């Protein structure tokens, strides 16, 4: 496996930033990576509060109300710093960068010590939120990146998963991308985020509880059982030697695609070279089919579910997979989470999963 070139420094307010460059790229001169802004620090004031009836943690992050919201392209904070405009990325160009979010949902102030876990109660300061910029081109979405750039993004995700998972108090690392104004994206530049949670979030917690119960009852891994069933079924969208993308049998969303590696793999750092090499081709194929579904860029949320950090949270049973869903149910129509979904937690889908898979295969 070729080595990605990695450079790191600190922004003007002390936050960490890392550049990821393709193998063979020239080394970056540290003198050209200096943040010259006069940037005041934003002190996170997040709290974790436990809802005893739901059995879930809720993060209160009131300081995020003042975060940057949909600036014009010429004031984008994720573009490179050039032509006299200083941004979050202090270089005139970049391939992929990752840096601490200036307005994080949780995490400590830059340079502050991370508290050691104490008892069962998580600390908001133990988490971390990072931004990952997929390209320095403001107008090139993920679906139009070359496969080699997607590979670099994948390697960056794996790097950050390993680093964040090693931080004291972190229990789950979740890389994701929100795309489209309908989703609520606040910055148009192609980017994603990584949340390093100081607790196990509800959705992976429920999944892993189901997997543990199935193993107890049958001795089999439920992720493996479901993947085998989907690969043999009628909802496959794209399949390669190492990955399969399919619409799940019980899809909650109007458009929903899951992407699994064939080899049981716990997390992004555990992906081998053949898996990493093929991922870009398969994922770009999926994204382009999705954009062709309604002849417009599809708003979506795509996130990596992977193994939790702790064995006690079910790490050995977990299987890496990407889940992508869209709230668009037809041209100009959005699936809103209304009474049943928001109030009762019961999803009702207006679209047949098999029909969605057939339409995507035909694109």
TrEMBL record:
<keyword id="KW-0548">Nucleotidyltransferase</keyword>
<dbReference type="InterPro" id="IPR001937">
    <property type="entry name" value="GalP_UDPtransf1"/>
</dbReference>
<keyword id="KW-0119">Carbohydrate metabolism</keyword>
<keyword id="KW-0299">Galactose metabolism</keyword>
<feature type="active site" description="Tele-UMP-histidine intermediate">
    <location>
        <position position="191"/>
    </location>
</feature>
<dbReference type="Pfam" id="PF01087">
    <property type="entry name" value="GalP_UDP_transf"/>
</dbReference>
<dbReference type="GO" id="GO:0033499">
    <property type="term" value="P:galactose catabolic process via UDP-galactose, Leloir pathway"/>
</dbReference>
<comment type="similarity">
    <text>Belongs to the galactose-1-phosphate uridylyltransferase type 1 family.</text>
</comment>
<dbReference type="GO" id="GO:0005737">
    <property type="term" value="C:cytoplasm"/>
</dbReference>
<keyword id="KW-0479">Metal-binding</keyword>
<dbReference type="InterPro" id="IPR019779">
    <property type="entry name" value="GalP_UDPtransf1_His-AS"/>
</dbReference>
<feature type="binding site">
    <location>
        <position position="138"/>
    </location>
    <ligand>
        <name>Zn(2+)</name>
    </ligand>
</feature>
<feature type="binding site">
    <location>
        <position position="189"/>
    </location>
    <ligand>
        <name>Zn(2+)</name>
    </ligand>
</feature>
<feature type="domain" description="Galactose-1-phosphate uridyl transferase N-terminal">
    <location>
        <begin position="45"/>
        <end position="201"/>
    </location>
</feature>
<dbReference type="GO" id="GO:0008270">
    <property type="term" value="F:zinc ion binding"/>
</dbReference>
<dbReference type="Pfam" id="PF02744">
    <property type="entry name" value="GalP_UDP_tr_C"/>
</dbReference>
<dbReference type="GO" id="GO:0008108">
    <property type="term" value="F:UDP-glucose:hexose-1-phosphate uridylyltransferase activity"/>
</dbReference>
<dbReference type="InterPro" id="IPR036265">
    <property type="entry name" value="HIT-like_sf"/>
</dbReference>
<dbReference type="InterPro" id="IPR005849">
    <property type="entry name" value="GalP_Utransf_N"/>
</dbReference>
<protein>
    <recommendedName>
        <fullName>Galactose-1-phosphate uridylyltransferase</fullName>
        <ecNumber>2.7.7.12</ecNumber>
    </recommendedName>
</protein>
<feature type="binding site">
    <location>
        <position position="76"/>
    </location>
    <ligand>
        <name>Zn(2+)</name>
    </ligand>
</feature>
<feature type="region of interest" description="Disordered">
    <location>
        <begin position="19"/>
        <end position="38"/>
    </location>
</feature>
<keyword id="KW-0808">Transferase</keyword>
<feature type="binding site">
    <location>
        <position position="79"/>
    </location>
    <ligand>
        <name>Zn(2+)</name>
    </ligand>
</feature>
<feature type="domain" description="Galactose-1-phosphate uridyl transferase C-terminal">
    <location>
        <begin position="228"/>
        <end position="361"/>
    </location>
</feature>
<keyword id="KW-0862">Zinc</keyword>
<comment type="pathway">
    <text>Carbohydrate metabolism; galactose metabolism.</text>
</comment>
<dbReference type="InterPro" id="IPR005850">
    <property type="entry name" value="GalP_Utransf_C"/>
</dbReference>
């Amino acid at each position: 496996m070729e080595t990605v070139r990695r450079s790191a420094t600190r922004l003007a307010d002390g936050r960490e930033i890392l550049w990821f460059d393709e193998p063979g790229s020239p080394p970056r001169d540290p003198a050209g990576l200096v943040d010259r802004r006069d940037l005041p620090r934003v002190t996170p004031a997040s709290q974790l509060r436990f809802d005893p009836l739901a059995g879930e943690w809720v993060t209160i992050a009131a300081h995020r109300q003042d975060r940057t919201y949909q600036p014009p392209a010429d004031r984008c904070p994720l573009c490179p710093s050039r032509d006299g405009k200083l941004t979050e990325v202090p270089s005139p160009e970049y391939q992929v960068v990752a840096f601490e979010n200036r307005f994080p949902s949780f995490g400590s102030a830059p340079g502050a010590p991370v508290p050691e876990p104490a008892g069962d109660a998580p600390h908001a300061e133990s988490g971390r939120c990072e931004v990952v910029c997929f390209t320095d081109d403001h107008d090139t979405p993920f679906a139009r990146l070359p496969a080699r750039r997607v590979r670099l993004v994948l390697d960056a995700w794996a790097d950050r998963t390993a680093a964040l998972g090693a931080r004291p108090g972190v229990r789950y690392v979740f890389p994701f991308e929100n795309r489209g104004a309908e989703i609520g994206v606040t910055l148009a530049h192609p980017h994603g985020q990584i949340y390093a949670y100081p607790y196990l979030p509800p959705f992976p917690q429920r999944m892993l509880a189901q997997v543990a119960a199935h193993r107890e009852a049958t001795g089999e891994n439920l992720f493996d059982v479901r993947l085998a069933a989907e690969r043999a079924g009628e909802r496959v969208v794209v399949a390669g030697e190492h990955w399969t993308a399919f619409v799940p049998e019980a899809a909650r969303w109007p458009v929903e695609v899951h992407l699994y590696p064939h080899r049981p793999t716990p997390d992004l750092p555990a992906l081998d070279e053949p898996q990493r090499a093929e991922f870009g081709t398969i994922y770009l194929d999926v994204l382009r089919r999705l954009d062709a579904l309604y002849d417009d860029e599809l708003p979506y949320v795509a996130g990596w579910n992977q193994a939790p950090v702790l064995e006690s949270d079910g790490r050995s049973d977990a299987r890496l997979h990407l889940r992508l869903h869209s709230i668009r149910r037809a041209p100009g129509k959005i699936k809103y989470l209304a009474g049943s979904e928001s109030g009762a937690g019961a999803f009702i889908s207006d679209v047949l999963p098999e029909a969605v898979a057939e339409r995507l295969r035909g694109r």
